[in-house]
Structure formats: C-alpha cells, structure tokens
Design brief:
- The complex is a heterotrimer of chains A (650), B (368) and C (210).
- Chain A is built from 21 helices and 24 strands.
- Chain A is an alpha/beta fold and 650 residues long.
- Chain B has an eight-stranded mixed beta sheet with strand order 6-5-7-8-12-13-4-14. A three-stranded antiparallel beta sheet of chain B has the order 9-10-11.
- In chain B, helix 3 crosses helix 8 and helix 5 packs across helix 11.
- Chain B starts with 5 loop residues before the first helix and ends with a helix.
- With 210 residues, chain C is of the alpha/beta class.
- In chain C, strand 2 and strand 3 form a beta hairpin.
- Chain C has one domain: Pyruvate-ferredoxin oxidoreductase, PFOR, domain III (Pyruvate-ferredoxin Oxidoreductase, domain 3).
- Chain C is globular.
- The chains are: A alpha/beta (650), B alpha/beta (368), C alpha/beta (210).
- Chains A and C meet through strand 1, strand 8, helix 9, helix 12 and helix 13 of A and helix 1, strand 2, helix 2 and helix 3 of C.
- Strand 8 of chain A pairs antiparallel with strand 2 of chain C, so a sheet runs across the interface.
C-alpha cells in the first residue's frame, strides 16, 4: 500500500487524503502527533503511528480528543511542531482548551486537523466544524484534492508559526477517503530540541505568557488575539491555494471551497458552461482574503455559493459585499439563503449540476435521464433490491449482551430502558441489538443522561435505567459520569460492554489493551479496578453466559438508590478470529428438529436473534448455518427452543 | 379466533387479569416465560393461530365440546361434574402417608401406575429450593414423594409436558389443578401438531381447588418464615382459620386473614372447583376425615386405575357420608355461581362471558 | 511505459461489492497501476460503515488532464461497472448506469441480513443476470467465486475480476504494469494471483456476450 515515509521528492503515489495529510505533516517536520479514533480522521494517525519511531516522531492515540490536543499543544510550546487530528465531535470536546490556547498563542506550528462528515454517514450528526474557526479566530484551510491535503497541511505549520496561532486544516469524508495523485516534496533534516522557555525565572519573575490570569485581564488578551489574527489576512491574500478559473466576465461566479470545488469544476464542464461560468476557489476560507474576493466579485453580477452544510463562505462573502462602497453594483447572490443549494446533507455532483443549471437557466439530462425507457427500467429494478443494513458481526459479544439486556428488562417488567453511547454498541438501536438503545447522543452521553433519569424517583419514576458503553468509550468519557452517579447516589446500572477493542473505528488500541499507538507495551489500565475503587457493586459476566448475565442484571436493577456497574466482558470476535485463526465450534442445524415457521418457534433464530451466519432456507423451511460466514461462537445453539442447533468443539 | 396468537393472548387473558399461570402457553414456546409469578413476553412472535391461544384455559372454551370428547355428553348441570363414583380413600403406605398432604391417594395411584408400567412418568409440581413451584416429570417413587405436597401458589405444570418434542413417546400420568386439566382437555379435543402426542397422557388426576395465592404471597412467606426449613404447607378446613407452615420440628401459623389479600384475582372467574374434566379428581377429606382424600372417579381410565390400585392394595377406601357429599356439592355449586357473577360484573352482561362457553340453560340455572 | 489511450476523459469505473470481498484493495491496485502509467486517478471507496457484509462501491475516475475530479460519480456516469456481487452491480447500475455502460459480474450472491433472516427476498438470480445484460451495452458474466475456490480461497475472485477487466480492454491498463503492482503490493501470493489474473483474462475471451 502507500509508503509515505520515503524520502524521494518528485515521486507520485496514489494516496488517501488522510495519508496525504500525514505526508504533509512529515514534510513540515513535525515531532509530535496525537489523535483519538474517529471516522473519517483515523487514517491520519494510523498512517503516522507505524512509522513514527523511524521518523523520530512521538505519536499517540490519546484517551480522548481533549487530552490529545492538550498534549500536542505542549509540544508546540516547547519548540516542536505538532499535529492533532480528530473528527468533528472531537473539536467540540477540545473547544474550552482551544479558546484559551488561541488567546495566549503558541510557539512552533500547531495544526488541528478536523475531518467532518457531511451527511453523517459515520457519525451521530453531520456537524460542519468550520464556523468554529470564525468564532475562535482560527485560520481555516480547506484542501480540495489529495495533493492539496499534503501541500496545505505543510503550509499550515508555516502559517501557524508566522502568526503564533493554532491553524485548522479541514477535510471531509469525500476528501479524506479519496485517493488521488500526490507528488511528494522533500523531507526536512533537522534536529529537534524541546525546551519550554517560559519557566519561572527567579531573576525575572513574571506571569507566564501562556496563562490568562487576573493580572493580565482576558479582555486585554482578546485585543492581542484580534491583532494577531489580523495578520492572517495578509498571509492568505496571496496564497496559491486561492485561485480563479474562468472567463474574464462570466455570467456567473461560483464561490466554493474544499471538495465542493471539484463538484463545481466538474459540473461546469459537464454543463459545457466553461465560457460562461467562472469558479473562485477558496483554500484559505477564513479569514476571507478580502482583496482577492472583492476582485472576483467584480467580475459578475451573479454569484452562486456551492457549499456544504454551513453557509460560512456564503455569509462571509455577503458580509464583505455589504461593506463595500455603496456605488458598487450589488450582485444577486444564490446559495442556501435563496434556496438554490440544499442546506443539509452532503453536496454531490448531481445536486451541484442542478444548482448551476437552475441559476443559469439551462437544464441537464444525464446519460441516464436522457433515456426515459432505460431509466424507468432502472426504477422497476430498484424496487426489488434488498438493502444491506448494519448488523453485528457473527460471533459479536454485543449481540449476546443486548439479547441478555432485552430479556432482563422484559423479566423485570418495569418498562426499563437503555441509554446508549457511541461505537459498535450504538447498534443496540437497531434490530441486531434488539432495538434496546433508546437514547443516543455523544461519547459518555449514555452514563451522563442516566444520572438524570436516576434521580427522578421523587416524581414517581420507577423505570430501571441501564447505561451502556464500550470499553474505549468508558475511558474516553464515561468515568466522570460514573463517579457523579456514585457520589450523588443516582439509580442506574452502568453496563460496560468490554470487548477489549475500539472496534467501530478500526481496532485502535486503548488503555484497556495496554498497547500504544506505536505498538509498544504501555501500562494496561483495568476498568474493573477503576470501578471497584469507587466502592460500588461491580459485577463481571461473560455475555455468552446468558443465564448468569440475565440474573446479574435482574439483581442489580433492584438495587435502588445506588449506581452499580456490570461489566460484560468478551473479546471482540474479529480480534479473536484474527489471532486464533480457528473457530471454537462447528455449528450445524439438525433439520429434523428444526420447526422453523411453526408455532413454538416462529424462526426465532433467524428472525429475532438474527446473525449473518444463520440463514433461513425458504424452500426447505429450515434454518441452515452458512459456514463461510459463521464464526463458530456457539451462541445460537442456546437460542433455539428445540435444541436443533448443535455445536461440536473443534 | 383461528388467527389469534400471542398478542391476543396477552391482551385478552394476561393483561385482563384472567391468567392462572397454568403454564399452558410457556414450555414449548420461547416467547413466553414465567418469572416471579407473571407471564412475561420476551420477544415478539408473529405467528397467527398460535397454540398458546388455542390451549389457554381462559380463551374461549367450548365446555360442551370438551365434555362430549371426554364423556360423550354435553356439559351439564352437575355440581361436581360427571361422577361415576365418589368416596373417601387413603394410602396404605406409611411413607406415602407421612409425606403426603392429606391421604396420599394421588401419590399412591401414580406409584402403582409407574410400577405396573401403565405410565413412564408423572407430570407433577415440584418446589425448588426457594419453594417456587415448577412443572416436573417424576419417573420413580422417590421423585413422586418429592412432589407429594401442595404449594398454594400457581404452578406451571403444563410446562413439563409442553416442552416435549414430537418424538417423545413416553406415557404419562398428570396431576394438576382444574385449570391445568382444562388446558389439557382442550389439547385432547384438538391435539397439538408439532409436540409430543397428547394421547400419551393416559391418566389425568385433578386436584380440588378454590383459589391459589399470588407471588406477593411468596414474598410474604419469605419474610415471615425460614422457607428452606419448610416441609409442608396446609390450610386446614373450617373451623380452623389459619395457614400452617410445617418444619421437621414444629408448625407455625398465620391467621387466614393475612393470606386472603393474596388470593389470585384470576381465580374468582373459575367455575371448576373439582377438576371436572379429569379422569380422577382428588381433594382433601376435610376436617372430619383428616388424613383421608375425597375421590371422584369420572372416566373409564379412572375406573381402571382405581381397580389396579385396589388390587395392589395401595389404597384403602370408605364410603363418603351423605352430609359430606352434600357439602362438597354445595361448595362447588357456590363457586360456580360466584364466579359467573364475577364474570358478568367484569363484562357488564350475560352476552359476554369471557372464556366460558356454556349453554344458556346452564347460565340461567346458575343465575337462579 | 506503454499506455493505451483513454476512450474518454475522464473514464469512470465502479468496482462494487460487499464488505470483505476485497474491492477496496482491488481499486487501489488498479489506481496505482494507472498512476504508474502516467494518469491522474481519483479513487473513492464508498461505504456506509466499513463492515463485513455492508455494501461497498469504489469509484475510479481516470484522466489525462488533471486531478480535479470529484470523488463520486454523478447520475448515469459510469463507463464500466465491475460487480463482485450481482445485487451490488444492479444497485450501482441504478444510480450510475446508462445504455452504454460495460458490465463485468461475478454471479455468486452474498445474502444481506434481511434475506438471511427470511424477512426479504433475494431477487431470482437468472432474472438479475438477464437484467444486467439488458441494461448494459456489453457484459461479461462469470462465476469468479467458483473459479477462485478452485484456486483455494474465494478471495481470489477479485483478482479474477481484475483479470477480466484487463482482458476487456476497457481500461488503459496493460498486463505488465498490473503484474508489477501485484508483485510489489502482494508479494507472498504473487504466483496464485498471476494464475487468477490470467484466468480472468481467459474468461473474458470465453464469455464474450455481445
């Protein structure tokens, strides 16, 4: 696959946007990189970590984005260029620190890489993080191609140092996970020396530059910050990442940035409007390079903003236009405000073609829609195709956990429910998890909200609350919530589904695994020990032992007025399979015993339990094991009411 | 009605408070379980025309059809059902006598049936370590003796036979309360298709029953007594007014008034005190005949069992005094009338009698 | 390095399949080979959540002109669709197909969880194949999985399809460049991969459809 550590300037490789960002950081000579797994950002650290030692870099998967970013800032303050990468939700988590850091400034380049997920394909929402840059005075760079991912990341460090400020490089799924040609630059050769120059000097004692205290009022620091930021404009004005492509006096000017630039460029070509439409590409989206923008605004009296989710560019340019002298002709603006560009969901070539065609008064027929018969056949076929929804992998411990939780809640009979969290456990919301998860917000949100539910008994609330989180999530965010519940005596059960993996994002290590990002042995941290140290009831069960798990849950749910912990521990099946390379059991169905659709079963194994390894053979009217998919975990044997599913130890 | 299944069962019987926890719907089915004295639905079953609905004694029950199937005649106005013979009896075996509730007749009959190979096992009730009743198949004398005593809580007896697959060809005896026997009878009228052949139940023994006590009662017992030491429970007849708990060394009592709040509401809609569809019905001998059982023989199978037991000298019998029989009949009739009234109060009129499928004639007679 | 000309610029290829079939690797290999041949390539692997048995499609745009290509094809813009699974080929035909599209299909079904659990139907396979034939200008239908099992592992289906793609002459890819990439990226299984590649090329010759 990709080889980003090679010192061969001028070579071209096919790199993911994320790999290109990593390469850009290498070409910038970083010495420190931190991250927390989060799609679509994870590949950045996954690319850097294996080569970190070789490249003389410290690379870390931190316990959460907050610590990751804080740690990276230490490197920056000590003369080491540092990178911290995360998904959008992570930026929310670092905001407090980020505000204060930006106020007081940094030393060597500190670049925050954010990978947003418009459309929310792999996230709980589709947050556009860019407005935070405007809000907190962070220079914002938006690469549009894999090449720019590299080049702009490299430049971001230079800009960051020039200004003494954190800079943000912002990507999206369609950029981070797209491979494109990347021509490599050179790798710098320099020895790095870390030193924090702002230590207490006995001969010259004074408040540190990096604090915002009572002597040095925050509002004064705000003034400093704004002055510092105003220099950013100058650096951005002449940036080669901002460009114009098109005729001198087009009928329409498109302002766009990031991946949307590729949509706009290609759309104009497809519509054959190259002679009539010009495209302004913003690479330095914030601060707006005002002279550059104004120059191109003057080209046309029609302006269209092609932008995803937040109208940041749209509003900033309109703000700028409003401030121009009154004698300037006022263009007509098209975008989200006018309804020409969808304000939610990701943009794509289809939508952008439509937006441009509408504004230009033309129409477009695709190679498909120009053939009505073809398209109508397609529509008919579409109706017959089954979807491929998410499910738990065969052998997944979570399938067992949610099965047991469902049974326990039904037996308990008080309309109890599960408050869920982020990760593979989130699939407790849908069929494979028996629809048990009823609230789902953010990392640590499960135990957080459970705290509240657990204090409603004075209002007649009597429903048992089970907060569910994974092991990685526990370390990341659930510990304070648990401590709060213990201390304030909230009535909930925190059920930690410990499969020893940060599975959803690709099996990155975490404190419970004891391995670090670079593959070294760190210190293993015990979830059980942390919970027991709080002096509350902590039970540990194997979720595959359904009876024990159900009985344990039933018992702790009766434990009124106290937060309790149940750890359902079983290794992630994919991790186990990869390591052991063999199945524990050979599973098969005794079809003479299988009663399938009949009363007394109603296909409970395939219809309710639902594992991809268990197939319903419609013609035979029997369940059948798909050996190619079955992991041999043996759980389905316990579900069959007729004992028709059998297992043979291998 | 042919399409009714778990959802309808849950709404019409369980949520309406008619369920007697007989276990007819659990056992063979992974969707219903009994937990702490309630029926719990674990998952959603989508079958239409489910056997759970079909065999529940509290879904529409055609008493005439059952009566015709067992006795050849429609369900009639007999206070204690069809009774070929009524008499008193007790076990001749001292060990059985000692371990039994009253006369030990049930255990004796089943013991003979097992020994003679008439049955391979007896479907009974066994109490676990916490004294919670479960359905159980006793296959030898020791196991029979373990089941010999009454628990006043409902027992899901039918679970023990309901879970048996089609291949099972063992012959069984069966001991249950009137609701168990009613469910069993519904199975005999339209036999289940994919489980053990119901005709393998060769002998159904029904126990007289006025009511059972709810799960709250179990918790009450746990609080008041050391249940692990208890070996027998008894509610002695009038004029006693107590609930007795026997341990090896002593007997403890609570006043019956403390127990009556736990009477299962579902029992107040039951018209069958003497298990009218059993082959043999057995009750206590009441105060006058402590240590004896009242026995009713109803069918040919019942009569045959009696003959075998007598010939093996397993039981001794004596005639039942006229007064006792009269009292029995009066008690049974009174339950019918009371229950019918309760049903009518619940539904608001004689047009809807919930599960009860009886003739207009009988309704009028009972309402007199 | 010899490179055939692009039949159009950009040339748009979709590799569609089910998570775990290896189509991400396959599209990377194709992309790498094309970069070596001097093309600008954009490869986007489109999956909801990367998971076994989820629907995956890689969009490959090949151009001489420059890397300005947007990652995802727009409606009806596919020139070639390779389906490692029949339903996934149909699914991508629906969004990106057009009367001129070329299709290469592996006929072995992978059942979605809804079909597995008996809730939904999997379309009748022969009808699906017929539909693919009807909705494409040229199509090659093969049981690549069966061929791969002969080589010892169903995963070789993707290299067989790669061979088919090569043999179809629809891409400006030559065998030598492809072999070079395979040798570099997957050295341990190079020999079997070569057999698979050639098998795929043969299958295209054998099953010329239109």
């Amino acid at each position: 696959m990709s080889n980003i550590e090679i010192d061969a300037p001028g070579t071209t490789q096919l790199l993911l946007g994320n790999e290109a960002i990593a390469r850009g950081a290498l070409e910038a000579g970083i010495g420190f990189a931190t991250a927390y797994p989060g799609t679509p950002s994870s590949e950045i650290m996954a690319t850097l970590a294996p080569i970190a030692k070789k490249m003389g870099i410290y690379a870390e998967w931190s316990i959460n984005e907050m610590v990751a970013f804080e740690a990276a800032s230490a490197a920056s303050l000590s003369n080491i260029r540092a990178l911290s990468s995360m998904k959008a939700n992570g930026v929310n988590v670092i905001t407090d620190f980020l505000v204060n850091l930006q106020m007081t400034g940094i030393k060597k380049g500190l670049v925050l890489v954010v990978c947003d997920d418009p459309g929310g394909m792999t996230s709980s929402n589709e947050q556009d993080t860019r407005p935070i840059a405007k809000w907190l005075n962070i220079p914002l760079l938006e690469p549009s191609t894999a090449q720019e991912c590299k080049d702009m990341t490299k430049w971001a460090f230079e800009l960051s140092e020039e200004l003494g400020m954190v800079c943000m490089v912002r990507s999206v799924t369609y950029l981070s996970h797209t491979r494109g040609n990347v021509r490599f630059g050179r790798l710098p050769e320099e020895t790095k020396k870390a030193h924090f120059a702002d230590f207490y000097d006995i001969d010259d004692p004074q408040q540190s530059k990096y604090t915002c205290g009572m002597q040095f009022h925050p509002y004064k620091q705000s003034e400093v910050l704004l002055k510092r930021f105003s220099k950013a404009q100058g650096h951005c004005e002449g940036s080669p990442f901002n460009s114009y492509n098109g005729p001198n006096t087009p009928d329409l000017i498109i302002f766009t940035s990031g991946i949307c630039w590729t949509y706009a460029t290609e759309a104009v070509k497809i519509l054959n409007l190259q002679d009539r439409v010009g495209i302004v590409k913003l690479g330095t989206t914030w601060p707006l390079p005002e002279e550059f923008v104004t120059r191109h605004l003057e080209r046309s009296n029609k302006v269209l903003f092609i932008e995803e989710i937040s109208p940041l560019v749209e509003q900033s340019v309109m703000e700028l236009a409003a401030s121009l002298p009154a004698d300037r002709p006022r263009p007509t603006f098209y975008g989200k405000r006018s309804g020409h560009v969808r304000a939610w969901g990701e943009q794509d070539l289809n939508l952008v073609i439509q937006s441009i065609a509408t504004v230009m008064g033309t129409s477009y027929r695709s190679r498909q829609s120009s053939n009505a018969e073809y398209q109508s056949t397609l529509k008919e076929v579409a109706k017959t195709l089954p979807a491929r929804p998410l499910t738990f992998c065969p052998g997944c411990a979570h399938r067992a956990s949610f099965w047991a939780i469902k049974i326990a809640l039904q037996l308990d009979g008080r309309n109890g429910f599960v408050t869920g969290d982020i990760g593979c456990t989130a699939m407790g919301m849908i069929s494979p998890g028996s629809f048990q998860v009823r609230t789902y917000y953010a990392m640590g949100g499960g135990v957080g909200i459970a705290n509240g539910f657990g204090h409603l008994n004075q209002f007649g609330f009597s429903q048992p609350v089970i907060a569910v989180c994974g092991d990685s999530t526990f370390f990341h965010a659930s510990i304070p919530g648990l401590i709060n519940g213990v201390w304030n005596k909230s009535n909930f059960t925190l059920t930690i589904l410990d499969n020893s993996a940060t599975a959803m994002t690709g099996f990155q290590p975490h404190p419970g695994t004891g391995i670090t990002a670079t593959g070294e042995t760190g210190k293993k941290v015990s979830i059980e020990a942390i919970c027991r140290s709080l002096g509350v009831s902590v039970q540990v069960c194997d979720p595959f032992d359904l009876t024990d798990t159900v009985n344990t849950l039933l018992k702790v749910m009766r434990n009124e007025g106290n937060a309790t912990v149940v750890i359902l521990r079983r290794e992630c099946e994919l991790v186990r399979a990869r390591r052991e390379r063999k199945k524990p059991y050979k599973m098969y169905v005794d079809s003479s015993r299988c009663i399938g659709e009949e009363c007394g079963c109603n296909r409970i194994c395939t219809r309710v339990f639902s594992c991809p390894g268990l197939v319903w053979d419609r013609d035979a009217g029997k369940a059948v094991i798909d050996e190619a998919v079955c992991e041999g975990c043996g759980l389905c044997a316990e579900v069959c009411p007729q004992g028709a599913i059998l297992k043979e130890a291998l | 009605m042919m399409d009714n299944a778990s959802k309808e069962l849950y709404e019409e019987v369980i949520e309406s408070g008619l369920c007697t926890l007989c276990g007819g719907c659990t056992g063979f089915c992974p969707y219903f379980v009994i937990h702490e004295g309630r029926i719990v639905r674990l998952h959603q079953c989508k079958i239409t025309g489910g056997q759970c609905y079909q065999y529940c004694p509290r879904t529409p029950t055609d008493m005439n059809a059952i009566s015709r199937h067992i006795f050849g005649i429609p369900y009639g106005e007999y206070e204690i059902g069809i009774a070929k013979e009524v008499f008193l009896a007790r076990s001749t075996d001292p060990e059985i006598h000692q371990k039994a509730q009253d006369g030990g007749v049930v255990t004796s009959l089943l013991s003979v049936a097992l020994t003679e190979g008439m049955i391979d096992g007896a479907v009974e009730t066994k109490l676990d370590d916490e004294k919670v009743p479960h359905g159980f198949i006793a296959r030898n004398r020791e196991e029979l003796l373990e089941c010999a005593r009454v628990s006043y809580e409902p027992s899901p007896v039918l679970e023990a036979i309901n879970h048996l697959p089609k291949e099972n060809s063992e012959k069984f005896g069966f001991v249950g309360l009137p609701c168990h026997v009613a469910s069993l009878s519904k199975m005999k009228v339209s036999p289940p298709t994919n489980r053990a052949n119901i005709e393998n139940v060769k002998l159904a023994i029904g126990l007289f029953c006025g009511w059972t006590l709810s799960h709250g009662f179990h918790q009450f017992l746990q609080e008041r007594f050391n249940l692990s030491k208890a070996i027998k429970f008894d509610i002695p007849h009038h004029p006693a007014h107590s609930f007795d708990v026997y341990t090896k060394s002593e007997t403890q009592s609570v006043d019956l008034d403390e127990i009556t709040p736990f009477i299962n509401k579902a029992c107040s809609y039951c018209i069958d005190m003497t298990a009218e569809f059993a082959d043999i019905s057995v009750g206590s001998g009441r105060t006058m005949f402590k240590g004896w059982n009242t026995v009713i023989i109803r069918t040919k199978a019942g009569a045959e069992m009696l003959e075998v037991a007598k010939s093996r000298r397993a039981i001794e019998t004596q005639p039942i005094p006229a007064e006792s029989l009269k009292n029995l009949k009066r008690a049974s009739l009174s339950k019918k009338k009371r229950s019918l009234q309760n049903i009518i109060s619940m539904t608001g009129g004689v047009d809807d009698l919930l599960y009860l499928g009886i003739s207009q004639n009988l309704i009028s007679k009972l309402l007199e | 390095m010899s490179a055939r000309e692009l039949s159009k610029d950009p040339l748009n290829v979709i590799i569609a399949g089910v998570g775990g079939q290896g189509n991400v690797l396959m599209s990377f290999l194709i992309g790498s080979a094309l970069v070596r041949s001097g093309y600008f390539v954009t490869v986007f692997d489109n999956y909801g959540a990367s998971q076994r048995l989820g629907a995956v499609a890689s969009h490959i745009k090949i151009s001489r002109e420059g890397a300005n290509a947007s990652p995802l094809l727009h409606e009806g813009d596919a020139d070639v669709i390779v389906g490692m699974e029949p339903i996934e080929l149909l699914r991508n035909l629906i969004r990106f197909g057009n009367p001129e599209v070329i299709a290469i299909v592996n006929t072995r079904p992978v059942y979605p969880i809804g079909v597995i659990s008996g809730e939904v139907d999997y379309p009748e396979l022969n009808k699906a194949i017929e539909t693919i034939r009807r909705l494409s200008a040229q199509s090659w239908i093969m049981n690549a999985t069966e061929e791969a099992l002969r080589l010892g592992n169903p995963i070789y289906a993707n290299v067989i399809l790669l061979g088919a793609l090569l043999g179809s002459n629809t891409l400006p890819l030559d065998k030598e460049t492809m072999e070079g990439v395979l040798k570099e990226e997957l050295p341990k299984v190079f020999d079997t991969n070569m057999v698979a590649l050639h098998r795929g090329m043969d299958l295209v010759r054998e099953t010329m459809n239109k």
